């Protein structure tokens, strides 16, 4: 079974990894800075929690089994993926405040495990909480690995 952000032990490991990245961390690929990465992850959680309105993007990945393939199976490219513009909404303010906000939102996401209705993803469309959880684990892992943790 894939890891779930609804599992407190999994979330704790991600929280530890988040804390271990500093504002001057060097990326292994891509153009995003460490501060931009934190804001990008904040935005993904805000989208999942329904706090950040999105516009749907058409494409095959909106439909199973394509959605499952991209979220669960296929390797993700290292570098710029065609992310929706909403995923780059938050502007970095102060490192410690941004980091605290990311950690707070991650815990809020985890507390909503039993929630039956989730906001749609702009690219993937309607998503269950379980699928949001798997996407969030994979997305966080991708960007934390990008910065060496």
List segments where confidence is low: pLDDT < 50 over at least 5 consecutive residues.
none
Largest sheet: none
* Helix/strand class: mainly alpha
Percentage of β-strand residues: under 5%
Please state the oligomeric state of the protein chains shown: single chain
Written overview of the protein:
With about 150 residues, the protein is mainly α. The protein has a single domain, classed as Four Helix Bundle (Hemerythrin (Met), subunit A) (Up-down Bundle), CATH 1.20.120. It is about 45% helix and about 0% strand. The chain contains five helices and no strands. The protein is globular and about 40 Å long. The mean pLDDT is about 95.
Topology:
Elements: H1 8-19, H2 34-48, H3 66-73, H4 95-111, H5 129-146
Feature tags:
single chain; 149 residues; mainly alpha; Four Helix Bundle (Hemerythrin (Met), subunit A); 5 helices; globular
In short:
The chain has 149 residues and is an all-alpha fold.
